[in-house]
Write a structure and sequence with these properties.
Number of strands: 10
Helix content: 25-40%
Radius of gyration: 23 Å
Distance between the termini: 42 Å
Strand content: 25-35%
Strand order of the largest sheet: 4-5-6-7
Number of helices: 3
Order of helices and strands: EEEEEEEHEEEHH
Shape: elongated
Amino acid sequence: MEKENVLEIEFQKVWDMWAWRVVKNDIPYSKELKEIEFNGIKVINTHKNSLFFLNSFEDGYEQLEDFELILKDEKLEIEKFIRYVNQKYGIPKRWRVEKGKKYYFLNTECEIRNIWEDKTKEDETRYNLGNYFKTEEEAQKVKEELDKFWERVRAGEIGGDE
């Protein structure tokens, strides 16, 4: 499945060196994931617009400021790091049909319907809720799960006074 990038760095050639800057850092940091290290480069949740390089002479990481120019070899290593991060932590892209094409959804009676995408507020709401399917079969699977859920609600297993 195609993934959306969570880390993007822009490079610009300056004579025989490269200027760089972080243009996107949407890495899903958490209590467990505070930093990502790969091949001597890392990013840290508290410094989202910086990179850190392993300094083998001082046996630790050193912050690379975005005003510092880098060599071509360092640029290539950063590009490998970006590919690693986006492959491992990238967000799966959700399918969305082009305007004027058909998609399926569940209406308020939990019936499967299809409609043509027109980029309306309703289309956007369905997409953001996840009530937006490529095939009738995908919609049917979700309908079956919703039917089970509402059955549990009616039986008092969910949402009752406890």
